[in-house]
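Protocol step 4 of 6: record predicted structures for both targets in the notebook before any analysis. Target 1:
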Amino acid sequence: MRLTHIGVCVIAFLIAACSGGSLQGAQSAAVIQILEPIDAPGERGPYDLGWHVELQLDRMSDVRPGDYIEPFMAGEASLRLDAVLQEHERGAPEVWRGRLHDDDGQRGSFTITRQGSLIMGRLRAGQHVYSLEGDEEARVGLYRIDPDKLPPPGPPMVPDENENDNQ
C-alpha cells in the first residue's frame, strides 16, 4: 500500500512502533535512523510518543542548499522521508534547515542544530510536530509533541514604560 501523506507515513510508523513492530529493516544510510520506542516520553515533556534515534549528521557535512538527501529519515520499510536542504549554517552552532517530502511530493520541514555534542531540532510532518533532543547519556530521542499537553498561552508581554528611562 502506498502512503500518500507525510503525516500518514509518520502515523503508520508510530502505530507499528507502539505495537511492537520491527524497526530493524530500515536503511542504515538515513540521516535519522529510528530505533526502539522510548518508555514514558511524557515524563520528559509535553510528548505522547518517542523513539531513540541514531543520527548521521556527518553525512550532511558536504550537502549544499538545494541538494537532495535520500533517505533523510527511515524506520521500518513503510517509513521513508527524503529531504531537500534549504540552508546550512556552518560554525558554532551548526544549523541545517530543509523541506521533507514523500514519494507523492507531500511536504514538511526540519531544523536541526548541533553545538559540540548538544543536538536539538524540530520536524513538522503533516499535522504533527516532533522534537529532536539529546539526553544526559548522549542518546538522541525523537518525540511527538502533544498539543493538549502544552501550557495555555500566557498574557502578552508589555514593555515597562520606565524601562527605557535608565538609558
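Target 2:
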Amino acid sequence: MKKNIILFLMMFLFINIFSQKIIFKDFSSYYNNKKIEWKFDISYDGSILYFLNFKTEEIPYEMEFITEYKSVLISGEKKGYLYKLNLVAKNIDREILGESNEATLIVYDDEEEPLRVIGGKVKKYKDKKTIHFILKNVSSKIIKEFELRYWGIDILGNPIRINRRSVLRYNEKGTEIKPFEYYNVYIDVYNEPNLRFIKGEIWKILFEDDTNWEKVIY
C-alpha cells in the first residue's frame, strides 16, 4: 500500500514539474505559408512528440498532426471555416508534458466563394411569401455590395419560375458585412402558391477596398 502511495506521489510530482502550458505563436505564419508554430520551454532530457488537434464544429471534420518540431505545415483544411486548435506534448511513453489552451483559427476564402449562402427558406403569410436567405462573409475583407441570384425549386430539386422568370436578381448596396459576419436577406414574393423551396447564389461582390469578385461559369 505504501509503495502505491509513493508511486502516486511521484507521478503527481512528475506531472506538476513537467506539465506546462504550450503557447501558440501568432497565426500570421499560417496565412503566409500554412505553418502553425508554438512556444514550449521545458527542461526535459528526451524526445518530445507534439499532437496538434485541428477541428471545426461547423462540419464533422477533424484532423491530427504529429511532429517532433515546434511547428507543423497544415494541409487538408477547408476554406471558409473556423477551426479550433489544441496542442499536447508527450514523451515517448505518451505521458503528457504540456498542453495548450484551445485557440481559434479563421481559414478565410477570398477567392472561391467569399460570401456564402448558408441557408434559404420560404415563409408563408396571408397575402405573400417571404424568402429568407442567410449569408456569411467568409473572406478577410469587408463587403459593401453584392448581387444575389435566386430561383424557386420544387420538391425534386427542379427549378420553377418566380414572377414569370426562372432567375431573379437581388442587389444590396451600402452595406458593411465584416469578415465571418452573418447577414440576412428578406425578399417578398406575391401570388406564388406553388413556391415551397428556394435556392440562391452569389454572383458579384464589391469589397471595401474597391476590389471585385465575380462568379466564374465554366
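Step 5 preliminary note on target 2. The chain is about 10% helix and 50% strand. The mean pLDDT is 88.
Proceed to step 6 after PI sign-off.
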